[in-house]
Design a protein that fits this description.
Elements lengths: L3 H14 L7 H10 L5 H5 L3 E2 L4 E2 L7 H8 L2 H5 L4 H17 L6 H26 L10 H23 L4 E4 L2 E6 L2 E8 L8 E8 L8 H10 L2 E10 L1
Helix pairs in contact: 1-2, 1-8, 2-6, 4-7, 6-7, 6-8
């Protein structure tokens, strides 16, 4: 079981290995690291998916619950960095705009309210950034959009790696493939990184049973052994 914040950590590692330079460097890397910061509290006490007897996966969690979690992301990161918080907010709105959640009237109303809140937040933060000499050049429409797309790309690559790449998998304009069926050795084409090889690592927990009760599931997760997942990336 790999938590969303652990997946985001991998995205941050990919950001720091990226060949194409981006600015502001630290803030964009922080956004990649923390783009799923809203999930931290949920991951400490995950909810049980009755269909599987395991914690909900990101995609299986009810849509309204996901919107509720996304709504708090930027505020959690704002005390660290305005620019990173802006990118996290933009990442959330980009996801729901490109992959709108399906559902009835309740979903539609909640989605519209979420987008309205986030766009107002983005406008307020952009106003403060554009008046700051450190960020002015990096707060234009084009500069922010470029950094937003980078976070989206790292997110997609990280998800592909952590879902497992035994064969071929496409993500963020790249083709990933396991080496000899080994998902911990992955080739990437075209090669987007600065060095000739990149190593990424994350941690998860090994659950070997399913549960009918949420409290028991949480206890089982707490005692499950930790597993370190290390993946080596090389050009194809």
């Amino acid at each position: 079981m790999i938590g969303q914040p652990a997946h985001a950590w991998v995205a941050g590692q990919l950001a720091r290995a990226w060949a194409e330079r981006f600015e502001p460097w630290e803030e964009v890397c922080l956004a990649a690291d923390q783009h799923d910061v809203a999930w931290t509290a949920w991951e400490r006490s995950p909810e049980l998916d009755p269909a599987t007897g395991l914690p909900y996966t990101f995609s299986a969690l009810p849509r309204l619950r996901r919107l509720e979690l996304w709504s708090g992301a930027a505020a959690l990161l704002l005390p660290q960095s305005r620019y990173a918080a802006l990118l996290v907010s933009l990442h959330g709105t980009l996801l729901v705009e490109r992959f709108p959640p399906e559902g009835g009237e309740e979903i539609r109303v909640s989605l519209e309210a979420y987008l309205e809140r986030e766009r107002a937040f983005q406008a307020r933060i952009l106003e403060t950034l554009r008046g700051d000499p450190r960020y002015g050049a990096h707060s234009t429409v084009d500069a922010v959009a470029k950094n937003q797309e980078l976070v989206f790309a790292w997110d997609g690559l990280s998800l592909a790696l952590l879902h497992g790449v035994e064969q071929e998998r496409k993500a963020a304009g790249h083709v990933l493939a396991g080496v000899d069926g080994d998902p911990t050795r992955v080739t990437v084409s075209p090669w987007p990184f600065r060095d000739d090889a990149v190593a990424v690592v994350c941690e998860g927990r090994l659950l070997t049973e399913t549960f009918a009760d949420e409290r028991e599931m949480r206890r089982g997760l707490a005692r499950a052994p930790w597993v370190t997942i290390a993946t080596r990336l090389t050009p194809r």
